[in-house]
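From the pipeline queue, job 12 of 40. The input is one protein chain; the requested action is below.

Action: predict structure.
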Amino acid sequence: MERCRIVVTFGMDEEEKALLFKTMPEGASFSFLSELNDEDRKKVLQTADVLFSWNPPKELAKDEYPLLTRLRFLQLLSAGADHVPFDDIPEGVVIASNVGAYAEPMAEHVLAMVLALAKQLLKNHNKLAHGEFNQFEINKMVSGSKVAIIGFGGIGKAAAKLFRCLGCKIYAINSSGRTQEAVDFIGTLKDLDFVLKESDIAVLSIALNKRTSNLIGRHELELMKSDAILVNVARAALIDEAALFEHLVNNPHFKAGIDAWWIEPFSTGTFKMDHPFCGLPNFIGSPHNSAMVPGVIERAVESAALNVRHFIQDKPIRGIVSREQYR
């Protein structure tokens, strides 16, 4: 593209804009949709070659998608793509997620949740608050554990690096069944039952799509060890909510940490919990903030902007999303 028109659909501060401008090649022009009136929005959408979006359903009105007649590339700020309205986006548009942009802080969050659950930190804190002092309550060692990492992309690899420091064995699952990383087992979703049976800890960092929706249900939970730890930092719908709650109630030594929720503001505008997870002693939750550390949005903007640059320059791009995995 000799002259590329880039339309940013979400609000950016000046520092984020500066990163975007610095990364793009000469000849690129920019429009920021949140700063325009209705008439100007229509004009820039009609001339957009690239959309840079975070949450398209909330940033674009339904009647604005047909205006995207020139669009060639949609770059997401988010690492996931399950919220994208694929049927509204013209066929032929390349869609890319921001894979790996949040990997390191999310990996730390995974490890923190696993350690907190293994050492029963929240449970014992609450006991102390009620005057109960049990110095001899047994906790669980994480060192030497078998860790299943279901979704061995940027987050999964970063988590594996931390667990290997504790002497853990890594049982990884990805789409190809191959990796150059140091693992003790690598397979695909066909091997899910095996890795769940074998592992002491299971981490969900896989993309949510039509194949992985409700990936972990009653059957999968029953395959796991009675004292296993399950942590989900990806998307809530990977797990059957009712099945998980029932399993936690009926198996008090089984533990779970959830960062992504079934009903939360990003997708629905509100937070709602259909089951009282936070009342369980073998559960810990966080408000989908595993990536939220200082400077993370700036780094994500820079990472996504580099992908846009590569698209403009006809270089290989990361995180291309297959529509057929979601439709």
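Job complete. The radius of gyration is 22 Å.
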